Amino acid sequence: MDKFRTEITVDKADELIGYDSRLLFMGSCFASNIGSYFSGNCLNALVNPFGVLYNPFSIATSLERMINHQSFNDEDILLHNGTHHTFYHHSQFNHVDKNKFLDAINTSLMTSTAFLEQADVLVITFGTSWVYQYHALGMVVSNCHKYPARDFTRYRLSVADIVSRYHELLTTIRECNPNLRVIFTVSPVRHWKDGAHGNQLSKATLLLAIEQLIQECYFATYFPSYELLLDDLRDYRFFADDMLHPSDKAVEYIREKFIESQFDADAKSVLAQLSKLIQAAKHRPFNQSSEAHQTFVRNHIKKAEEFQTKYPALELSRIKESFKEQMI
């Protein structure tokens, strides 16, 4: 036998992402894993401005607030276990100081609202179709913030629930930004709370909903993150120690498939060159004051400046600053 796995070939996108494209990633922790690579490599990418969001309704609510420029006020803020939070945000935003918390979430909202209106691509990653509805407010929450389980009703969204909500949402987004393209993915992270069968039912609901949405919305497509791990790699050596999350190597493999199928040739070349610059900026020799290293630093500052001139849409100040910090 020559083949020992079923490798998935991802078709090239009809419209490819350029190095200067504005990319908004929203959804599960897998969205953060993929999106942070692009923001970390100096592309114009914004990742999870509300923090990690797992279910379709919480992602939709966040996008709706962005579209409607609906800022947060004191009535949205709750205090629990000594920290302020909202049921719209991940706990990464939680803060003991109410004013600092409110300022942080509204700053993030304003930034993401402006970004969405000019974005070229919106990547939405669904994690689970299970949701928690908070009794007191009657809303599906993005994070339970360690409230007692009795305060929530837990249920699974239906395909119809998701399609109905997103058909209207995507139509509205396109009215605000007619050039926006949407790429849906399903997180390969397995949610084991309901066991193997329950996880499959949840993922199947998401997949069926996305399939219907991309049939109805010509500007929406699907990228098979879930299938690349579960059907292509299909081996526990590609999972983290908890056997539920993908390993770093698996994330890298899926990301490379994403780049190969979604990015144009110029963008791929830019990413490759940026990777070399970033690795050089991280280099710390034993003798930083040596003439050899100082020459290395000066040469790479020049390379970064030339690269910035050639590709003005990139923001390379962080890389240049990293080199300048090494100058004696």
Automatic annotation (TrEMBL):
An example molecular function term from Gene Ontology annotations: hydrolase activity, acting on ester bonds
One matching Pfam family: GSCFA
Cross-referenced SUPFAM superfamilies: SGNH hydrolase (SSF52266)
Gene3D superfamilies on file: SGNH hydrolase
Residue span(s) of domain GSCFA: 22-258
Superkingdom to which the source organism belongs: Bacteria
Protein name (database record): GSCFA domain-containing protein
Organism: Carboxylicivirga sediminis
